[in-house]
Amino acid sequence: MGLILGKITVETPKYEVVHSSADYEIRKYPPSVVAEVTYDPSQFKGDKDGGFSVLANYIGALGNPQNAKPEKIAMTAPVITKSPGSESEKIAMTAPVVTKGDKNMVTMQFLLPAMYKGAEEAPKPLDERVVIREEGERKYGVVKFGGVATDKVVEEKVDNLRKSLERDGHKVIGQFLLARYNPPWTIPAFRTNEVMIPVD
């Protein structure tokens, strides 16, 4: 019942708020380890989130873990998505599931639990599409919002956040990420989403 009403019961990334305004927060995230998969959504019948099942299989969220140990890895939140067609710039990401777009290709990431301090500590994936790598410390301008994160809503949030960051003298250094903290069966009014833009 808690998941339907938006209760977040899984590990979420730690961060430090370095600046807070009425419009947004600037957060600093520590280094982390991610599992990622890059794919063309057409391989999943046009589903931008099609890589989710590949990563969920790796950690064992959908059954037996598809890794060399095999070791079940706890799910974390948020799921972070970068859709194809967004502005194409260099990016550094944190969070459980991240998706970055390059033309038609999408990269989705799960942030692994903080117990994994380096890529070599994470179990080796059996699926060669899954890559384990380390992300360094990074800063983001972040806006939180509820409801369904439709393309139109996200575009509006990104545009407003970018304008606010530039207005306040923050240098944007990459493309935006969409962080979704709840499963799809959560009642829309109780969902938590964030738009994240990397800043210098």
TrEMBL record:
Alphabetized Pfam families for the sequence: SOUL
SUPFAM superfamilies: Probable bacterial effector-binding domain
Gene3D superfamilies from the UniProt entry: Regulatory factor, effector binding domain (3.20.80.10)
Similarity remark: Belongs to the HEBP family.
Listed PANTHER family: HEME-BINDING PROTEIN-RELATED, SOUL HEME-BINDING FAMILY PROTEIN
Name of this chain's protein: Heme-binding-like protein At3g10130, chloroplastic
Organism: Durio zibethinus (Durian)
Gene: LOC111312007
